[in-house]
Each structure stands twice: as C-alpha cells, then as structure tokens.
Input
Amino acid sequence: MQSIKKIKNLKGKKVVVRVDFNVPVKDGKVEDNFRIKKGIPTIEYLVKNGAKVIILMHLGKDGSSDITPVIKEFFRLSKLSKDKVEFYKNVRSFKGEEENSKELSKGFAKLGDIYVNDAFSVSHRAHASVVGIAKILPSYAGFQLEEEVKNLSMVFDKPKHPFLFILGGAKFSTKMPLIKKYLKLADSVFVGGALANDFLKANGCEVGMSLTDTEGYGIDKLLKNKKLLLPIDVLVQKKDGTKEIKNSHQVLKDETIIDIGPQSVEYLNGLVKSSKLILWNGPLGKYEDGGDLATKKILKEMTKARGITIIGGGDTVALISDMKIENKFTFVSTGGGATLDFLSSGTLPGIKVLK
Output
C-alpha cells in the first residue's frame, strides 16, 4: 500500500476519500462517533496540504438512510471548513455499488484526481467505492487503514508470547478459520459467547435452549487441542427469567446460557495478566439479554495489562465505547467482518488494489 504521505503535491487536487462513517443514528443524532473520530486525521492532513476532499460513505444497508446527522457530527468534531470538504451521496443508494459496477466506478472516479481508502471496515467488500474506483485513479491508503494493517499484522507476523486469543460472539462459519489458525499461532485460545455452546455440546455438555450451529465444522478434532479453552462455569437464564451460575456440565434442557461465569472470568483474568499479546474479538455473552458482565470485567482487566492489547469486532467495540475506555488499549479496530477476514487471510480486496 502507498501512504497518502507519498503524494508529492496535493495543492489544488480533488481527493476522493472512502470512509466508513456507518454509525448508529437515533432521532437524527449520532449515538457513537468512534468511527468518525478515527477518520478525521486523514481528511485533516489532505486539507492542510491544499486538497479539496470529496467523501464517499454509506449509512445503513439499502442506501435509504439520510447521512445529514453524520455530516453534522463530522463538522462538529473536525472544525474543518465546508468549502474544503464535501460529502457525496450515500453510496449504497447507487445501483451497482455492491456489484462493483464499472460504470459506477467510473462515475465515482470523475469526482476527483486521487483516491484514498480510509475505510478498513468495508475493505473486505469488492464494491465500486472500495475496489472499482481504486483501479481507475492513483490510489493511496489513509492513516486509519494503515493503522489497522500495522496493528492487526502484529498478531500473525512474529507475535509476542505468551499470546492469548479470546474469541466470542456467534457466526460460527466465519470464525472457524480463525480458531484453526490461531490454535497454531497462539498459546491459548479461549472460546466464549454462542461459539462456546457448540464446543460444550460436542464435549458432552447439555446447553439447553442456547444458540448453537447445526453444522459440525470438525469440532471433535479441535477439542483434543490443549490450547483450546472453554468456559468452566456459565450464567444461565431459566424459563421463569431468573438467572443462576452453574458449572458448564450442569445446564438443564430448559435453560439458556447467556454469559460465562465468575470462575471462567477469574481464570481468563489470570491469563490476561501473564500474556504479552492479547487479541480479542466478539463478546463472551448475550449482552443484549444482560450477559455483558463477564465481558466488561475482562475488558477492565485488559486496560491494566502490561502486554499488547488488540480489540476487534463491532459488538465488543460498542461496549468499549459505552464504557469510555477506547484509549486504554494498544489498538481498537474499527472493523467487524473486515477484522475477521484480515486476521484470517492477512489481506482484503480493498487493500490488494492499493498498489
């Protein structure tokens, strides 16, 4: 990738910047501005060096969302002049964006002289505003994209040991390649969240009404790996709504696992203290159902860790923002699916094209 610092002369140039400002908006106000903050340094640098910036972004899935609240929040945070920064329409409103249409890519390219990708979290998608335009204009990586690549590469490019990988959330099919890869690279791989239910079930435990995946994924083989760590105890929700801490082997058929238990938290915190590199992706419980306590406790312990601490995954990052501890880790990724794909393959379509 070529950094924007390699651009020799920005004076009078129009620079098209793809950002990911796809943030939660409620009642016309941005609820979490984490991604907007991360995108500002690149835009400020370009403007400071004489460029006019045209921003490409999406909001929502179908392109119907109004980006006005995001624009307001951006200018409130950045203090940049509106004659120096222009927001284009929601790119998802254009037919052909997700299909990487050549015609649409050409249309985007006509907006400027140079293209900058600073949207790591959408770089796993071969869309017109991410890949198509980069094949037409001279293309560079923004500061946030560079930061993502540099920091996430630490976990597979000569990682420090002991190396602890904590993996939670659901979506087993997308996380299985990660489990297999990091059972080789890391010293310990702790699996929590809905992912753990499948492992516990394969290990002969009852998981009751808990979310599981119907596919096998060769879990039986992975269970033999001594690096794989599973919850010792869990927090379950009973049919009447009450909650109870139980040993992982004591769950009943009408109960639902919503979090890992205190013994598991204590054990994990011990590993956090002794590790030189900690990578975490995905919450360890159903935080929307009150299963967020374990995740928050371990996140707090990680803020005191001496080792390198790297956090990825949209849901985990949302909790971190809520706890206002974003600056207490070595690095917090803006990506969800992109972070998973990058950790698994070491590159992304939106990165490959920046040559």
In short: The chain has a mean pLDDT of 95. The CA atoms of residues 85 and 256 lie 50 Å apart.
